[in-house]
Amino acid sequence: DIVMTQSPESLTVSLGGRATIICKSSQSILYTSNNKNYLSWYQQRPGQPPKLLIYWASVRESGVPDRFSGSGSGTDFALTINNLQAEDVAVYYCHQYYSTPETFGQGTRVDIK
Amino acid sequence: QLQVEESGSGLVRPSETLSLTCTVSGGSVSSDEYYWGWIRQSPGKGLEWIGSIYSSGHIYYNPSLKRRVTISVDTSKSQISLRMTSATAADTALYYCARHPSTKGWDVWGQGTTVTVSS
Known about the structure:
The complex is a heterodimer.
Chain A: E1 4-7, E2 10-13, E3 19-25, E4 30-31, E5 36-37, E6 39-44, E7 51-55, E8 59-60, E9 68-73, E10 76-81, E11 90-96, E12 103-104, E13 108-112
Chain B: E1 3-8, E2 11-12, E3 18-25, E4 34-42, E5 46-54, E6 59-61, E7 69-74, E8 79-84, E9 93-101, E10 108-109, E11 113-117
Parallel strand pairs in B: 2-11
Antiparallel strand pairs in B: 1-3, 3-8, 4-5, 4-9, 5-6, 7-8, 9-10, 9-11
């Protein structure tokens, strides 16, 4: 199984500040045939199902604010939230769909300072 | 607009079978562009992929659950079903049904249904 490791477990950021979440996979999730990383990011607010934010590691899902951005390739990835808003308080998960079993990171809780 | 709703046995006794249904409205469960799956979330364990079913009929299961899980689709009812035998307390979780386009991650989720395994 590909293990997805997120850090930090939680972070507190000032309103308008920047949050960066790191996700590392235990093996490369880059498909060399199409040069795509099979990595997505989700936001889960309390009492809600996860919401897809980013796929292919860096492509923003339709309707997702541009303050959310994804980067990285191979085994090292990051989700950055610029200009943090109150509605961004949530738990964020990375997810690999490169191979089965699909696996998720353990989650990173983002709070407002 | 596509809507996904999970339903099923909320309370299951240990060693019995857990049965859940996912009803999809406003879209097709048999499109080649997507596959469907079940994902669960327990308080201490985060998100766990259970398995996925493709329109081709291919089904993939998490090896950790494969012995006990069956996923099926009824296209006439637009439903995806999950059956898990020999339930234990470790299966207590919020169970989600979701859609996965071939080019993205899981883009449409139901609200989830809670299953508690207890005598």
